[in-house]
Design brief:
Arc Repressor Mutant, subunit A, D-Maltodextrin-Binding Protein, domain 2, 22% strand, five-stranded mixed β-sheet, rod-shaped, 3 domains, 44% helix, homodimer, DNA-binding, alpha/beta
Chain lengths: 296, 296
Amino acid sequence: MDLRELEIFLTLAELKHFGRASQACNLSPSALTRTIQRMEEKLEQPLFLRDNRTVTLSPAGERLKAYARLCLNEWQSLRSSIRNEQAVTGSLSIYASITAVYSLLPELLESFRERYPEVQLELRTGAAEQAVAQVQSGEIDLAVAAFPDGTRPNIEFLPIVTIPLIFIAPRVAGAAEVPVPGDRLDLSRAPLVLPQTGLSRRRLDQWLKEHRITPNITSEVSGNEAIIAMVRLGCGVGIVPQLVLERSPFRDEVVVLQDAPVLKPYQVGLCTSKRNLQRASVKAFWQLAEERSMAA
Amino acid sequence: MDLRELEIFLTLAELKHFGRASQACNLSPSALTRTIQRMEEKLEQPLFLRDNRTVTLSPAGERLKAYARLCLNEWQSLRSSIRNEQAVTGSLSIYASITAVYSLLPELLESFRERYPEVQLELRTGAAEQAVAQVQSGEIDLAVAAFPDGTRPNIEFLPIVTIPLIFIAPRVAGAAEVPVPGDRLDLSRAPLVLPQTGLSRRRLDQWLKEHRITPNITSEVSGNEAIIAMVRLGCGVGIVPQLVLERSPFRDEVVVLQDAPVLKPYQVGLCTSKRNLQRASVKAFWQLAEERSMAA
DNA sequence: CGCCTTCATTGCGTTACACGCAACACAATA
DNA sequence: TATTGTGTTGCGTGTAACGCAATGAAGGCG
């Protein structure tokens, strides 16, 4: 039994006139007759008692009338509740590093807020490394994350910016062998301040492996900000994404080594699960970001 | 939105597995996929969140699930209530003359009662002449009536028996010119006891008109039983359906005139309106009578 | 690492079915 | 008797739902 059929039936039940009902339903008289006949066959029971003069509802028709009203009303309320739900209770949790919150996200969040003011936004900051894991666990809807090298199953990425990985040195040489600006960076000799894990570490390790160089690692820390702090103190040469350096309060107290190996740059963008991408709020954010990166 | 679609949706919502759900619905996987896609398009909202591993309900899907359950449950209850209604509350009112109640109806009622014991029967007796009017007014569902000569609009007839119209005379001649058994009946001379109106009167009038005979009408009464009573008293020659005479307590006190005009016989049968014929109980009685007259 | 299995989806040809048009049946009306 | 109003039926047509086969994507396993 179809909702359209119920609607047609109800119209006829109220008008009690095939001609007028068919007109009211934008239907040919024959189509109306057949629709009612189909319904009567399905119920194995006449719904209307007709003679050539009048049309009246049978007892079964009265029952069906109540049913039809129920179904159609509930359908209306379902539709509106789904629409409202889409707008009002749409929520979106975003995970990002502090750097991202200050650099990439502001303009995105602003235009999203403008276009979809009804979506409840939740913003969580944390280590950039954990972004993908947060998304995979379902803890979070959307994250700003660096592209992992390999593609992950059921995870979608949308690149937004490409950020070079740069080598930084203290403005004033501290320990021995720490290069000063203008020197050529010799990775086999220079003392290095590196993250324990993470994408930039893997990029460097790969480069070193390709060039068969054994590095001189002074200290391993976690977090790009920590690297900048260590470098500033003169501990050695560090490697950070350019964007992080630009946002750092210590940016003037370290120098960028221009004559250094060029590592494959960071790809930073949005990250979510395939499943989340089907939710209205997530999809909206995603498409907004796509538009902006198209325009750029 | 179709009930079948809702059923399919519910199955998938419970199994959360396209393959198994399609099997459970006797459907190909592709058909299931498309069915869900259609529903999602109609609602402009995803119902399931899928990745290559799992299928889960979206918020909109949860709402639809509640709706689907409501519709399907109500549909079941509608079907069963309609079936029960058909059997239990089916009522049938029958109008018949006293003669019919004693002659035609007993066997019909008996087998009807046997086959459809749940139908509430109501039996009303009255003048045979009013049977059709009772049906037309909707006062009564079904009547045992004589065929009117012309067909009536929106009224159906089912002939059951053919009953000759016979001329009767008193066993012992009373008034002058009243014929005795064996005489040839001369309608221009014999005193007649006729019904004021009714089918038998019309039949006789027609015959007289065709033969250009002016009758000698002694008295006009109403009701066949009255005719028999008058004839018995010797008032004249009467005309009654054979069946009425057979059932009359005075049947031995009048005689049938064999050598008399042959009038077109009475056709007695069931009578109902087209509209009533669509009701289950009426239809059942009608079909029962059809079967019996077939067999006879 | 490569092959196979499991799932959902998509392309495509086929079929069923709902529709509109026209003709019809039946009754009321002039 | 002709005409109008009303519901139904015959028939040709187009859409849309289906099944089959191929595809894409991810997990399992030797």
